[in-house]
Design brief:
single chain, alpha+beta, Muramoyl-pentapeptide Carboxypeptidase, domain 2, 5-stranded mixed beta sheet, 6 helices
């Protein structure tokens, strides 16, 4: 849920007050968005889209479908990371990818001010809104079960920090293996969340607010 610094402060503030996504003004011409559904690239990726359920920080569904999308270069890099983990007996478990800006605003509104380092400020937007951030963990290829980490997903405590020294040795080893696999493919971990990774080219894409059903409809039309 890392912040993305897009547009000027004045533009961002105005957009936030109007309940609209902030304007995105990259230093270079933006790339045309090309959001791809992750499981269309590799069906062995496992999904646990919490925001399509009530098992999330809001306590109700905020997505209209349990799907995960990323901009194509990020999605392809994610698949490479997934494939590299198979020799260790693991696969990637996806919690979230592209997130419409309106959902980022919901998260900000329901989060207490003292916990807002764990969510993105909608006045600036989230890298999830660019389609270049992913929340994920590992699953065991043999059992299909989620691998235990030092914290659970979306836990707003220091246990979620990627350099947290607590938990078991096995939990820390799994967390660090995930980080290594993702960093080798051009992702960077967020300092407050071991599960959140940003793709290197996020700044080349605009902030988006398209709901999932519209993405699916547009792709079916091609």
């Amino acid at each position: 849920m890392l912040l993305s610094f897009s547009g000027s402060i004045g533009v961002a503030s105005t957009a936030f007050c109007q309940n609209k996504p902030p304007a995105h003004t990259p230093r270079v011409p933006p790339r045309q968005p090309d959001l791809v559904e992750l499981i269309s690239l590799d069906a062995t990726l496992r999904l646990d889209i919490r925001y399509a359920t009530s098992n999330n920080l809001v306590g109700r569904p905020v997505y209209d479908d349990a799907r995960a999308f990323l901009q194509r270069p990020a999605a392809e890099a994610l698949v490479r990371a997934h494939q590299s983990l198979k020799k260790y007996g693991y696969g990637l478990l996806i919690f979230d990818g592209y997130r419409p800006w309106s959902v980022t605003k919901i998260f900000w509104d329901v989060t207490p001010p003292e916990k807002r380092q764990f969510v993105a400020n909608p006045a600036q937007g989230s890298k999830h809104n660019h389609g270049c951030a992913v929340d994920l963990s590992l699953y065991d290829l043999k059992t299909g079960q989620e691998v235990s980490m030092p914290s659970v997903y979306d836990e707003m405590t220091e246990r979620s920090y990627p350099d947290y020294k607590g938990g078991t040795a096995e939990q820390r080893a799994a967390r660090d293996l995930l980080r290594t696999a993702m960093e080798r493919q051009g992702f960077t971990v967020y300092p407050f969340e071991w599960w959140h990774f940003d793709y290197k080219d996020w700044h080349l894409y605009p902030i988006m607010n398209t709901p999932f059903h519209e993405l699916v409809s547009a792709q079916k039309g091609h």
